[in-house]
Amino acid sequence: MATVKAVCILAALTLITVTLVPSQWLAMKLGWPVQRQIPLLWHKAASRLIGLRVRQHGEMASERPLLVTSNHCSWLDIVVIGGTRPLSFIAKSEVAGWPIFGRFAKLQRTVFVNRHRRTATGRVAQEVAQRMAQGDAMVLFAEGTSSNGNEVLPFRSALVGAVHHAMNVGEKDVAYVQPLSIAYTRLQGMPMGRFWRAHVAWYGDMELAGHLWSVIKEGGLDVELTWGTPIPIDKATNRKRLTHDLEERVRGMTIESLQGNVRIQEERAQA
């Protein structure tokens, strides 16, 4: 039964994709504003079909320019975060060459960075800054890779500096960086724990196709998204100190979510 269900989900995702992809391609080609909304619709539909129950604590900041810095556990993060608001991602250059997913990333208006070439970082920072100055909220997975879902890895500071470029491009005195935590907490309604979180986490040399099939077949995932307080940045802000602060905030929010403290606090407040 689970296999039949998974096949039906994939069929539905395929139908939605072939419907929306031509529209998104045309919107990007002609510069229509709807190009920001179409990926949001796809991610919302995919999230529901896969069986993701997303619970948000706080919300994305309305201030612009805005860079969102998040931890990274799985390819599912794209679906979860992409279904919240119109936004775009910053991804490693290898993603652009992935079958199917690379095309999706391009249609999401993703900015790709070659993390192995320092000369490319400056160019990408300028591109990210240009997009931020135009009003796009950009999401950076600041660890530079995905983790096992039980921890937050050290943040890299290189692209966090894009906020400074955004101020120069947009001729503004202040920009904003917002920490974001994503945590997978329950499977089929039961607390996931450290062992079962590997069912969701996609990292190291894991095969994408097999992992995708396993997640779709199982479904029933609870995800906690915690939006931190946006940090105003001026041109004198120290990039490395800012990166360390963002890392600590995301790590703290992730620990709270994995331990169930955020959910408990909200339930008590509603009682």
Index terms:
10 helices; alpha/beta; nine-stranded mixed beta sheet; 271 residues
The value of Rg in angstroms is 18 Å
Estimated share of beta-strand residues: 15-25%
| Total strand segments | 9
- List segments where confidence is low: pLDDT < 50 over at least 5 consecutive residues: none
Looking at the structure, what is the overall shape? globular
Structural category is alpha/beta
Mean pLDDT: 89
| Residues in helices, as a percent range | 40-55%
Please report the distance between the alpha carbons of the first and last residues: 39 Å
SS summary, helix count: 10
Largest sheet entry: 9 strands, mixed
- What sequence of helices (H) and strands (E) makes up the elements? HHEEHEHEHEHEEHHEEHH
